[in-house]
Hints:
The protein has helices at about 85-100, 105-120, 140-150, 180-195, 215-230, 240-250, 255-260, 280-290, 295-300, 310-315, 335-345, 355-370, 405-410, 440-455; strands at about 5-15, 25-30, 35-40, 50-55, 60-65, 65, 120-130, 155-160, 200-210, 235, 270-275, 290-295, 320, 390-395, 415-420, 425-430, 430-435. It is of the alpha/beta class and about 450 residues long. It has 2 domains: about 5-65 and about 380-435, Urease, subunit C, domain 1; about 65-370, TIM Barrel, CATH 3.20.20.140. Helix 2 (about 105-120) runs parallel beside helix 3 (about 140-150) and helix 11 packs across helix 12 (about 355-370). The chain is globular.
Amino acid sequence: MAAAQRTVIENCAIATVDAHDTEYADGHVVLAGHRIESLGAGPAPEGLQDVVRRIDATGHLVTPGLINTHHHFYQWITRGLATDHNLFDWLVALYPTWARIDEPMVHAAAQGSLAMMARGGVTTAMDHHYVFPHGSGDLSGAIIGAARDMGVRFTLARGSMDRSAKDGGLPPDFAVETLDGALAATEETVRRHHDSSFEAMTQVAVAPCSPFSVSTELLRQGAELARRLGVRLHTHGSETVEEEKFCHELFGMGPTDYFESTGWLGEDVWMAHCVHMNDSDIAAFARTRTGVAHCPSSNARLAAGIARVPDMLAAGVPVGLGVDGTASNESGELHTELRNALLINRLGAHREAALNARQALRLGTYGGAQVLGRADAIGSLEPGKLADLVLWRMDTLAHASIADPVTALVFGAAAPVTASFVNGRQIVEDGRLLTADEDAVARTTREQARRLARIAAQG
């Protein structure tokens, strides 16, 4: 680290989101290569060698980069459809279209999803991709390539479905894989793309889609595969009352008990949504350290309900934030989820005591690192951790009259991102991507959305 090139950021407020919620009203951060070398109050130490850049961050708040723990990138090209549906009706309406995606569509949609998140402060993203039509190309490779080019740290949750309509599931018959095919393709994706190193930019998780779209055997063997390969597990769980009814009718038990019976609770597992959880479910997640990706905007958009996030946190359940697919969260931005998580949870049983600003910021940073299994490397600003951080401008009209910058970031309007660093490399400057042409991405996503609509209309 002593020989690494250094970037010095000074004159900024800092929210470290470390174990003690350490904050500095006026401080500095020193980056050395890919790592955070030091941080603290006041100016940076004198006499630093190999300083290639100094940033005067007056008027800014520096936080860890935001971490998205649940998304479906391909949905970027089907935004604005089925806007008045609940989850099951929404899925039935959109599956016939999704089943016609191909590699150019998926690559464009991944670019759009990643670009929108990155310019809004996301430094680590994930994508749960589970639709693999026959002959559609290398979809996993297309998604991973888009993330690499965007410069964002990335986890691909390689999804799968093998329970189609003929088996009592929701997806159409032509939209699913076979059990053996799904397992083989998932293992190949892990072996080709997963990096287990501390500084990994790409990781892969095993991710059968949901109880109503995969067989019990795919869940069970998927868990065995993930643990044999040493990677994490991800799926949807307890999202709606309809899902709970489905599980009771088909399996004779609720979603959490069903997941536990198939090996799907554990500290290497995280699940999206977890809206309809009773006290016993929450206790099981806490006991096993199973993580949760909380998606407040999507839960509201699909009228799924309000997840019991305060109760989960009190019990010790790891909780992060997720955008969810942009066909159920058309903005596709994670920084708005900080505010929505706080506000929506205050509509629940705990009312104004549900969440505060710092808890919301923790969900979007360190909480996300926990559920992705990377809390040792990212999610807080500490010496030795990877240099993933964001400079939020807080001295504009939108925020300047709010004295506390963390309150301003969470309660206020979406704050401008002056700079975003991933692995020590700057990927955003003054709200614009440095790693992609946003206008070109917009054109390509529009073209691919129209192309998909034409193909779907032709049946």
